[in-house]
Design brief:
The chain has about 300 residues and is α+β, with helices and mostly antiparallel strands. About 35% of the residues lie in helices and about 25% in strands. The strands form four sheets. A five-stranded antiparallel beta sheet has the order 4-5-10-6-7. Bound molecules: flavin-adenine dinucleotide (FAD).
């Protein structure tokens, strides 16, 4: 039988027993040594020949790296090796961050989500990563570790370009931390793919809104987009407009237009850049109107 892609090239496999063990083995050469989580991106890229590491360090069995913990005072901490299904099934995540659950449930199939980790989704740095927009509007922060110690940074500062992140050679992502979600918040993740299941996003839009007496509109909004720029992006100017004007169909459409103007999509096998830009407007307006309705129903 002829395979559509070559077989996986040979590699050395290291089963890391602790983060320290993994980091000591990692060294500085990303071309030679890579960390392995679910392998759902890594093995595809290795088979396609776009990367050729000769050593893989498996993070999945490191104690604590897949832990999901919720604290009523500080929020949620997700270990980077937690699978998408484990996160989406967690009762505290379901109760406190349903927007993230919804976003994860749009990824591929149940079977794939049993392997794919949330850390791998971020570190692969695809502009189409479905977890990214929701994690961005929820104000996530990342913990990165190396043999030298650990540092924290906002998810907003993590993505540098397609496949590029703020990770330096020898560093791994260990935790994703979400603050407590704002009181009374409502959210929506809308994903447009070529079919209703199992496809990468042509456009992904996450919107989060919550009441706040301070801004003119009485609400604050956060908006993030996937698959329409070199990285997942926040749309700060549209967020500001929705806070400083009275909330109406017109202001929502103006905000959606700002998102459309900010988008820098490419044309590829899934959609043309022009179609993507048009859909950024439609989906952003749709998500904002849904969120406004949910907020008004609760007011
Ligand atoms: C058929 C199919 C459909 C898909 N559909 C979707 C979809 O709809 N939406 C979507 O967003 N994605 C989709 N994907 C992509 C993929 O499943 C996700 O990006 C997945 O979450 C990657 O996680 P992983 O654990 O498999 O990562 P891996 O493949 O193990 O790793 C991905 C990259 O991140 C690095 N890495 C992994 N973990 C860490 C860490 N802790 N620290 C530092 N670097 C790390 C690896 O070295 C590698 O470079 C699809 C993939 C396939 C094969």
């Amino acid at each position: 039988m002829e395979l559509p892609l070559p077989e996986l090239p040979a590699f050395d496999y290291l089963h890391a027993s602790s983060a320290q063990h993994a980091l000591e083995q990692l060294g500085g050469s990303i071309a030679r040594t890579r960390v392995l989580s679910g392998g759902t991106d890594l093995f595809v890229q290795m088979r396609a020949g776009s990367i050729a590491p000769t050593e893989l360090i498996d993070l999945k069995h490191i104690p604590g790296l897949a832990t999901i913990e919720f604290d009523e005072n500080s929020g949620l901490t997700i270990g980077a090796a937690a699978t998408m299904n484990a996160v989406a099934r967690d009762p505290e995540v379901q109760a406190n961050y349903p927007l993230l659950v919804r976003a994860l449930e749009t990824v591929a199939s149940y079977q794939l989500r049993n392997r794919a980790t949330i850390g791998g989704n971020l570190c692969n740095a695809s502009p189409a990563a479905d977890s990214a927009p929701s994690l961005l509007v929820l104000g996530s922060r990342l913990t990165l570790e190396s043999v030298g110690g650990q540092r924290e940074l906002a998810l907003n500062d993590f993505f540098k370009g397609p496949g590029e992140t703020a990770l330096t050679p020898g560093e791994i992502l260990t935790k994703i931390s979400l603050p407590l979600a704002p009181t009374g918040w409502k959210g929506r993740y809308l994903k447009l793919g070529r079919n209703t299941s199992g496809d990468l996003a042509i456009v992904g839009v996450a919107v989060l809104g919550f009441p706040d007496p301070e801004p003119t509109s009485g609400f604050r909004f956060r908006i993030a987009l996937a698959s329409v720029a070199p990285t997942p992006i926040r749309v700060a100017d549209a967020e500001e407009l929705l806070e400083t004007t009275t909330l109406s169909d017109e202001s929502i459409e103006q905000a959606a237009r700002i998102a459309q103007d900010l988008a820098r999509p490419i044309s590829d096998a899934r959609a043309s850049a022009e179609y993507r830009r048009a859909m950024v407007f439609e989906l952003t307006a749709w998500a904002l109107k849904d969120v406004r309705q949910m907020l008004e129903e609760e007011a």
